[in-house]
Amino acid sequence: MKSSSKLSDLTLTQLTEKKKKLTSLLVGITAGMMVVCGVLFYLIFKTKNYILMPVGMGALITLIPVFTNFTEVNNEIKKRQKQA
């Protein structure tokens, strides 16, 4: 909730810039994470060491805070555009 109050202090231009940065961050991190998880899953199935599978799934959980922040910024931009 604290980030919502901080977002309300930003201008629409600043919010748009923040959205662009978060989009770039999400694309980069997600692409990198998918490559790493792909290699991990390949090695899991090749070595038949299935106990490591939750590690790959758990690694994707690290993206949740970035997605949450991205959604909050999008919601704030939409709210401002409706008011204008």
Tell me the number of helical segments per DSSP (H or I, 4 or more residues long). 4
Largest sheet: none
Tell me, what's the shape? elongated
Give the CA-CA distance, first to last residue.
Answer: 24 Å
Give helix and strand order, one letter per element, not per position: HHHH
Number of strands: 0
Give the helix/strand class. mainly alpha
Helix content range: over 70%
What does this structure look like?
86% of the residues lie in helices and 0% in strands. It has 84 residues and is mainly alpha-helical. It has a domain at 34-78. The longest helix is centred in the middle third of the chain and has 36 residues, at 12-47. It starts with a helix and ends with a helix.
Name the features.
84 residues, mainly alpha, 86% helix
Give a brief outline of the structure.
This protein has helices at residues 2-9, 12-47, 53-60, 64-83.
